[in-house]
Structures
1.
Amino acid sequence: MTALEQLRHVMQPPSTGTHIDWDDITAAYGTQFPFDYRDFLSEYGTGEIEGMMAVFAPSTDPELPLRHTSRLPADVLDQPEVDEWNDPRHAELYDPADVMVWGETVEADVLGWITSSDEPNTWPVAVYTHGGEWRVYGCTMTEFLLKLLTGDFERNPTGLTRLFGRGSAEFTAS
């Protein structure tokens, strides 16, 4: 059973997802996106988990929401603390400029992938905890959400104590 199939058991999808023209998105972003993320957006769309964690979609329309899947902005990359990693080896392997943000939390945690590989389905999830550092998780976006809700991480990867290990959650489409 895939992580998305398991996720359905702990977080019911809304009645409709988001239709995305992935060919247009690939052309605009210069990269493909992981299949599990594409499948998640098809089923769930963009929205929030328990009003505490937002999941974004990519966009090619400058008039659409400010919050969409994107690289970290230049003004953020200029801040020295954005290059803090919990594991010194990650500081040598990864660059914050390679992070593609797909979500955020009400605690100001940033959720994204490290996109340094040409194979999107191998991109690890990276989480920047507010006032902290980047942590890298060798899992897909849907595996990350599932593990967060079921408490299947050694420690809470975000500042959201109310979501970690909750067991079930409500997704509200936006």
2.
Amino acid sequence: MTDFAPAALLSERTGVELSREELARSASRYEPCLSAAHVSLYEVGARVPQLSTLVALARALGVEVRSLLIPVETEDLARLRVEAGIRQRDLARSLGVPQARWSRIERGLLTPEPALLRELAEILGRPFDVVARSALHTRRRAVAASARPKRRRTRTRRETAMPGRRLAAYAP
């Protein structure tokens, strides 16, 4: 969950005048085992909540999941899914495609068919043009990333001094 905004959680919680304990108790109805300590770690950015926890926190605060995420101008397909609070596996199942295929679509490695995008828009409750634009943005970003040269891994001083003996330090 790379788009999580810790300050947004703190702002929303203080806006509805809940303590960390009250928020944790309220969110525990949707996500068991959530404590005030967890909420505190999320608010300071020391931990990032899983999607199910983020959905539980949003429900407890009475806000949409997107209000707890970093605002962006152009959303990709994965972001739309996260905002809807749907796991990748569940969305792939709803669309009738294998999860591996949907994962490649979300990463921009495959281009989805228009019929799949229409069904996705319906499931996510978003307009078709927003979903289509997001799919295009996802694909363009993946193509741009593949065009960049890959950085080569540099060897550490110890590896260059003793080539082929990287695990020697761990031998009994």
